[in-house]
Amino acid sequence: MNVSTFDIKQRYAQLTKGSTVFSYLGSLSSADLNTVLKSIELLLTANYSSKGLQKKLFNLLIEITQNLYNYLKSPVLEDRNEVFIVVLECENTHKIITGNFLLTREIASIRSRIEMVNALNNEELKELYRGILDVGIPSHGGGAGLGLIDLARKSGRKLSYSFEEIDDKFSFFTLEVTFSNS
Amino acid sequence: MDNYTLIPTPKTPRLYFNAQNGEFEISGRSIPENSIEFYKPLLEWLDEYERNPRSETKLHVNLEYFNTSSSKCLVEILRKLEKVNEKQSVKVFWHYEEEDEDMMESGEDFKKILKLPIELVVVKGGG
Q1: pTM higher than 0.95
Q2: Residue A178 zone, left/alpha/beta (φ > 0; ψ -120 to 50; rest)
């Protein structure tokens, strides 16, 4: 892999070549987040007749964009604050793909959290979710990892992901959440 | 004791907590980035209510969307009502739209975790 050639715009362009339902590339300030959620909602209301599907998509997108937003608040990212959010529809499934930079040293912990979630079936995910919910608000005030479990549970599929090293400090993280339309 | 009420916004729910008749409601959307900050005053209000609750308290939860950080706050709210329920009667009604399986499952999550009578109420014909 040639680490010097990574370009988020190029990656975004590749992903949005086909028929996209929604796509966004940019930073994610509080105002951006509101704009993104608002445009997603307008789009869903205009283009989706099934209320169930509308809600499923919006639910997942709220969680995903807010996860990104919270993560990007971290000052360690310096100026690497561009992200993309892409929604594709193909063959009776929807795919939500997000991309963001992260510190290479954080990969191990994120990977293990995703792998842990992916190793569980729906019933086990439900038990884990309830267990964490039961513990209540963590004292440090942050999320306690409900986000990924929620995504896996609501989508009913395994989470796909990849990490690409950019330079000696940063990597690029792509997360894919897929779910069936019916 | 004063009532606790907040008007809804695109990201936060309507909160209507009537200390005089014990009728409570959380409705709309609960998707703020900082849920803990949003719910803290309500949790404090509930601490006070718990000291001298009405003989019957009813909470209607009627949410369209909520994020995972709100779900943790909802557990905290319901924990306060568990305490009220040790003294006086409490009933929780969890409303969900017929086609919204995720919202129904969330209701079941809370039902499983909490020692409270939580009734799932299906709302038909949401569109």
Answers
A1: no
A2: beta
